[in-house]
Write a structure and sequence with these properties.
alpha/beta; TIM Barrel; Lyase, Ornithine Decarboxylase, Chain A, domain 1; 6-stranded mixed sheet; 12 helices; 19 strands; 21% strand
Length: 390
């Protein structure tokens, strides 16, 4: 029975007390990572920010506002809805590029919200030309050429055909000419230099038609390849959020995310047996197991079963058994009892177990770990105003 002080339909507890896990995003670290990249870039290079996929799962609004306040003036998203949301957040000043290009019927939205379409096929270019000439609009755009990745971008043959046609780019107002690196996270990969040379040729040819157009090639890892890859616009994404852009070396970026999962039960095993669905992991008598209120529905990937780990009281604690939808079990046998009480927390992403550590255990990349983060966490944002200077 409810007391008079607890009316139906009104919560009396704090959100963080109701949550199964708490996600903390350090906006100061996001901003500092942007500054680190900006200082590394060649003079005059515009250091933008890729904030697609809800700023890699960390929250578009707080991340974009923090970066804008720090001086970021160019943002990149994947879809038009994300671009519109971003425009409403950051206001009319900064540039926004929509990487996946304009779907048919969205041309007016690009104009209304001052969004640069990224044109990656002859068909997209033709459709945008038709619209721009018919409506007599002049909107900055981005032309993307493929330099060897065979994903998005006009092919070399298509590009040559368009360039040879006096009307091939008629009606466009290209601000950026771009391509995308395939292997930038492997600095020694020969494709990096191959793509650079192919892109340079394309840039030179494009500037015979549009001499003032700027170029963009480098993503997060591409920035660390050196200034030859920087051109006039750089497009960092994952590095802003703490993912290592140089996997063969120490991470030059600051950690951004802390995720801790609440312990809801601690069990001292009195009979040898197994843990979780499928009896996938054996457990010995005397083992101490902590089950937390977090699972694959929260983005803690199922592939982390019996391969991931967390940290409790400074001690590494392995995942045992399968990750369930809402629950994950850790072996905390080596952790002293005072630190293993229900209601406490196990760090699953932290300084001690990084996004890249979790990704390796899951046989994936940090990008997937971040973008999989669910919406059931209680989210805390540390303000960007505390960012240190390098």
């Amino acid at each position: 029975m409810l007391s008079r002080s607890s009316p139906p339909g009104r919560t009396v507890s704090r959100p963080e007390d109701r949550a199964g896990a708490i996600l903390t995003v350090d906006l100061a670290a996001v901003v500092e990572n942007w500054r680190i990249l900006k200082k590394w870039a060649r003079p005059g290079c515009d250091m933008g920010a890729v904030v697609k996929a809800d700023a890699y799962g960390l929250g578009l609004e707080p991340v974009a506002l923090a970066l804008k306040s720090a001086g970021c003036n160019t943002f990149y998203v994947a879809h038009i809805d994300g671009a519109i949301s971003l425009r409403q957040i950051i206001g009319p000043g900064p540039r926004i590029a929509c990487l996946n290009g304009p779907n048919k019927g969205t041309e007016r939205d690009h104009v209304a919200f001052s969004i640069m379409p990224v044109l990656s096929t002859p068909e997209q270019i033709k459709a945008w030309q038709t619209f721009a000439l018919k409506e007599d609009v002049l909107v900055e755009s981005v032309v993307q050429v493929d330099s060897g990745m065979n994903r998005l971008g006009v092919s070399e043959r298509e590009f040559a055909t368009l360039l040879a046609d006096p009307d091939g780019f008629l009606g466009l107002h290209p601000q950026i000419f771009m391509s995308h690196l395939a292997c930038a996270d492997d600095a020694a990969h020969p494709m990096n230099k191959s793509q650079l040379e192919r892109f340079r040729v394309s840039v030179g040819a494009f500037r015979t038609r549009f001499p003032d157009c700027k170029a963009s090639l480098a993503n997060s890892s591409g920035i660390w390849l050196g200034q030859d890859w920087h051109f006039e616009y750089a497009r960092p994404g994952a590095a802003l959020y703490g993912v290592n852009p140089t996997p063969s070396r120490a991470n030059p970026m600051l950690p951004v995310v802390n995720l801790k999962a609440r312990i809801i039960q601690v069990r001292l095993v009195d009979t040898p047996g197994h843990v979780g669905y499928g009896a996938a992991a054996p457990v010995r008598e005397g083992a101490k197991l902590a089950t937390v209120s977090m699972g694959y529905a929260d983005g803690y990937l199922r592939s982390l079963g019996s391969s991931g780990h967390g940290v409790l009281d400074g001690i590494k604690v392995p995942v045992v058994g399968r990750v369930s939808m809402d629950l994950t079990t850790f072996d905390v046998s080596n952790v002293p009892d005072p630190a293993t009480l229900p209601g406490g927390f196990i760090d699953v992403i932290s300084h001690a177990v990084t996004v890249d550590d979790v990704a390796r255990a899951a046989s994936t990349i940090g990008y997937e770990i971040l973008t999989a983060l669910g919406n059931r966490f209680h989210r805390r944002y540390l303000p960007a105003t505390s960012a240190p200077r390098v």
